[in-house]
Amino acid sequence: MVDLGKDVKYIKGVGPNRAELLNKLKIFTLQDLITYYPRTYQDRSKPKTLFECVDGEEALIEVVATSKVVETRFGKKTMQKLMIGDETASAEAVWFNQTYLKTKFSIGKKYRMYGKIDKKYRKIQVLSPVFDEYGFTQNTGRIIPIYPLTYSLSQNILRKIMENAIEETYGNILETLPEYLIKKYNLPSINQAIKDIHFPKELKDFQKARERLVFEELLMTQLALLKLKYYDIEKVQGIAFSEQYKIEEMTKQFPFTLTNAQKKVLQEIEKDMESSKMMNRLLQGDVGSGKTAIAMCSAYKAVKSGYQAVIMAPTAILATQHLESFENIFSNLGIRCELLISGISKNKKEDILQRLKNGEIDILIGTHAVLEDNVEFKKLGLVVTDEQHRFGVRQRNKIATKGENPDVLVMSATPIPRTLALILYGDLDISIIDELPPNRKKIETFAVTKRMQERVDNFIRKQLEEGRQAYIVCPLVEEGEDNNLKSVIELAEKYQKEILPQYHIAYLHGKMRPKEKDEIMLKFKNHEIDVLVSTTVIEVGVDVPNSNIMVIEDAQRFGLATLHQLRGRVGRGKYQSYCILKYEGNNDTIRKRMKVMCETNDGFIISEKDLELRGSGDFFGTMQHGLPEFKIANLFEDTQILKKVQIVARRNYG
Ligand code: ADP
Ligand code: MG
């Protein structure tokens, strides 16, 4: 058997210099190398005649050299040209700055070339083709893997190294899955899968290889989570909170009656809290379903039982908003709440830390700031994290270490189908609020094309005249953060100068410092700003009840879950709210996706449909760091495999 832990520098063709470049790709061992999977493949196995080639495509041709390479020089650059031909036409192969090619070809010899075809009028050129002498298959004649990042390593060199690595390992890797699973699900062996994922002979070999590797990856993740749940967490002695102080007592403080869904969830939480098992629970509920009230109730129980609670929110403004809600309820009950965010003065902070340690603060609400080492509790019993997808599992665990096995409640507003919840949060028990408080007005949603621009602008103007506020979300720009920034500023300027000059327009984007962002959000909340133009940074649960319009530009570029989250920013007050999805493009999937948004306000239905329709918008885009990183699995596309894996995993943890 081969030692997969071996340093890459000892692989044939690597050596110390290339090892450094591989290290930059986080490839340190032989194992890392052979699991550096291709991003895509080019089929360079099916030759075309020059006659068949189409302008603009990349194609494999089999040609004879009919001239020597001629080099022309202009300035510092050189160009190499070679006349070639097959039985259907003659053509020209062209390279730039590749002087060494001058001696590479012999007149009359046959070559395979793969490159981009330029076919205008009657002239055919092949641009910078890769090639082999006929009969060799280093660069052509087969399906070629294309690797994601390579830095200064060329695709060719990385491919060669990979070939050596596969040659060394093929047949020598220990099987990682049990025999019965391989048989039952008809999977290729690990050796075959690794070979075929890099160098498939045919497309179906690649598909089988990928299926096996995805299966394995998902299974390992799932088993690890279940192990955590059944062996690690459940064995730990947690806190048994008092049965004397019932959550129901405190719900009388709310100006509303809880929905049945909220009541059901609270029962589940109360049971967990009273048992000596550590609570590790995920609370899923759509935007506006009333998760904050649940957090308050749990905190109440913890405090009444003599413990402290901490509530973590992803932004300062959200934390501040929570503090207000908490104080409204808790000030009457003699429960002391405090806010810890990075913006506060040093003195104030010292004071908070001191009181926290002395147990003079019952509930601490804050941002990442609460994770800092100098934040010490007297007796932490409950950790609540809001909008979970912004925090990673690691942060969740870090805060939990500030107490002795405190109960943990994770709240998420990203509704996800159950199959996915199991793989993302397999270590947690799951509670769902599947009902909104009564009398919520549906957010009226319209999907419109660019032609309706003027009517949309008039509509916004009319709402602003009535004293409302609006959000405008900028298109997602693919070419990076800087362009995103540009599009936000340009759009804001356009609205300020041309469309709504009499109103106060401001903008918000991800590159602003957190403090700037919070200032803008606060101004918007206080109605010093009428229209907020922004990137998706406003996504997280900020409450501005007076804003009732959400316009989303280029809506077809966003995943449905993101659209849903964004839309949830309005409809938080007493006014009828509207969401206007401006979209472009005429394909069926886009229209279906827009239709889903217009027809329903239910996040769970939307996430199911999103999975079904797949499409380009990535549902998980909204979840960011919360996700485990997969090398090959794609939760979005691999739901079938995921279902199989869950059956297997459950059998192992009956
Ligand atoms: P989210 O689940 O998005 O965090 P919130 O907790 O912010 O939702 O609740 C949204 C709004 O609904 C708040 O203004 C809250 O006071 C109100 N609310 C919560 N539960 C109920 C209920 N059972 N009946 C009426 N209003 C409620
Ligand atoms: Mg919330």
Structure summary:
The protein is α/β, with parallel strands linked by helices.
**Average residue-wise pLDDT:** 88
Q: Biggest β-sheet: count, sense, barrel?
A: 7 strands, parallel
Are there runs of 5+ residues with pLDDT below 50, and where? Answer: 615-626
CATH fold description of the largest domain: Rossmann fold
Principal-axis shape: globular
Please state the second-level CATH architecture of the largest domain: 3-Layer(aba) Sandwich
Strand content of the residues, in percent?
15-25%
CATH class of the largest domain: Alpha Beta
The CATH superfamily of the largest domain bears the name P-loop containing nucleotide triphosphate hydrolases
- Which structural class is indicated by helix and strand composition? alpha/beta
Distance between the termini: 34 Å
Helix content: 25-40%
Count every beta strand, where a strand is a DSSP E run of 2 or more residues: 22
User: Ligands in the structure?
Assistant: adenosine-5'-diphosphate, magnesium ion
Question: Any idea how many domains?
Answer: 4
Number of helices: 20
Question: How is the largest sheet built, in terms of strand order?
Answer: 12-13-11-14-15-10-16
Roughly how many Å is the radius of gyration? 30 Å
Task: Provide an overview of this structure.
With 654 residues, this protein is α/β, with parallel strands linked by helices. The chain folds into four domains: 1-44 and 155-172, DNA polymerase, domain 1 (Orthogonal Bundle), CATH 1.10.150; 46-141, OB fold (Dihydrolipoamide Acetyltransferase, E2P), CATH 2.40.50.140; 247-433, 3-Layer(aba) Sandwich (Rossmann fold); 444-601, 3-Layer(aba) Sandwich (Rossmann fold). Helix content is 37%, strand content 19%. It is built from 20 helices and 22 strands. It has a seven-stranded parallel β-sheet with strand order 12-13-11-14-15-10-16, sandwiched between helices. The protein has a six-stranded parallel β-sheet with strand order 17-22-21-18-20-19, with helices on both faces. A hairpin with a 2-residue loop joins β4 and β5 (77-85). α8 runs parallel beside α9. Bound molecules: adenosine-5'-diphosphate and magnesium ion. The site of adenosine-5'-diphosphate (ADP) has 15 residues, from α9. Residues 256, 258-259, 262, 285, 287-293, 413, 437, 541 line the site of adenosine-5'-diphosphate (ADP).
